[in-house]
Design a protein that fits this description.
By secondary structure, the chain is α/β, with parallel strands linked by helices. Helices cover 47% and strands 10% of the residues. Strands 1, 2, 3, 4, 5, 6, 7, 8 and 9 form a nine-stranded parallel sheet that branches.
Length: 374
């Protein structure tokens, strides 16, 4: 009966869906300044925050039918959309207040904002003049934030019937929004790759950068890697890094009958083979997990790691450079959080070095991977 109910709910959700649009990206070369100081990072951050806030405000004038049409959905959860909107506004206010602390050094995009009404007022009238120093960036940014906002609202419209990273279910879940300003955490999903593949390149690259990341591995991929090499080689592969789990297979854990076994088996394998690297954290593929799964994760001593900055590096339409540009734009917008790449995607080989170079002088911090379990 329970399985039949899951399948019925899943099919209903699929019936409400249509194909999403291509993921948003923004050519960062349209921005006329290098982010080579904390103050210049703040200038760009204020600009992205105001542009996104302007787009968010505009959606509040849309009724249910207009939202369905815009999001290309047959049915939407208006309460969920309103809840996500409110959370986004709160985050935007906090972020803009943080970004305007350097207005005495550079006043670009500094406006009177001290509370939510003043932020909404400034967002409503925000415009970049055609003869502005930033004119070449303005229209591409507007398009990026309109499309990125649609991504968020689309997930909100389907939540909680289709779970995603757009919201959390409880205290066992973490999405990076609680992190300190200018602090970011790097995560890599769906590995490990085959021997001498992207995982090998990434772990070596991160060690050379004196950085650590959390690698969320699949049990079957780790088992396959162990079958073709040795336990010592795998331990050497992840030296200095953290390893969490994504389950036994890269598939939705919302309506899979064996989802609990998937997590327990993969966690046991990682703890056995990588005891010094293991962190008790599960990252759900696609962000899909059950709304009532909190008790299970608590019983297993596991946290659920989500993300608020998605590279979309699995999208065929994005190159590695476009994926990196998307991540940087979202770092400017959200100013802290969890960044999700996939270490089975070769795109990260070009995206991550570009991202680190672009932000090297921006005053950002990279959280040690062990903190993800705390």
């Amino acid at each position: 009966m329970r399985v039949a109910l899951f399948l019925s709910t899943w099919l209903m959700c699929l019936g409400a869906m249509a194909a999403p649009n291509e993921p948003a990206t923004l050519d960062r070369s349209t921005w006329p300044e290098q982010l080579n100081s904390p103050a210049l990072f703040d200038v760009a951050s204020r600009a992205e925050i105001l542009t996104f806030a302007h787009a968010l405000l505009a959606t509040e004038a849309l009724d249910e039918n207009a939202l369905k049409q815009r999001l290309n959905l047959k049915a939407i959860n208006l309460d969920s959309i309103d809840s996500v909107r409110q959370r986004l506004w709160q985050q935007l206010l906090l972020n803009y207040n943080a970004a305007q602390q350097s207005c005495d050094q550079d006043a670009s995009f500094c406006y009177y904002v001290e509370d939510m009404p003043s932020l909404r007022e400034q967002a409503g009238k925000f415009v970049v003049a055609d003869d502005s120093f930033y004119a070449a960036w303005a229209e591409p940014s507007r398009e990026f934030h309109r499309r990125y906002l649609d991504e968020q609202l689309r997930m909100a419209a389907l939540f909680p019937q289709i779970a995603s990273e757009v919201a959390v279910f409880g205290e066992q879940e973490f999405n990076g929004e609680q992190m300190s300003d200018r602090l970011f955490m790097l995560t890599l999903d769906s590995g490990p790759s085959q021997s001498s593949g992207t995982t090998d390149w990434l772990t070596d690259y991160l060690r050379k950068q004196s950085m650590s990341a959390t690698f969320f591995v699949l049990g079957n991929s780790l088992q396959a890697r162990l079958g073709k090499t040795s336990e010592q080689a795998v331990q050497s592969l992840y030296k200095g890094q953290c390893v969490g789990v994504q389950g036994w297979e890269y598939r939705s854990h919302s309506h899979w009958q064996d989802w609990q076994d998937s997590i327990v088996r993969s966690a046991a394998l990682v703890k056995q083979q990588l005891p010094d690297n293991y962190v008790p954290v599960f990252s759900p593929p696609y962000g899909h997990r059950r709304a009532d799964s909190g008790a299970f994760f608590k019983s297993q001593g596991l946290q659920v790691a989500l993300w608020n900055i998605d590279s979309q590096d699995m999208a065929a339409s994005l190159t590695g450079e476009q994926s990196a540009h998307r991540v940087l734009t979202l770092m400017l917008l959200w100013r802290h959080g969890v960044i999700a790449f996939h270490d089975t995607q070769d795109k990260v080989r070009s995206a991550l070095p570009w991202l680190l170079k672009a932000t090297a002088q921006s005053g950002l911090g990279w959280q040690n991977c062990e903190a993800i379990a705390q």
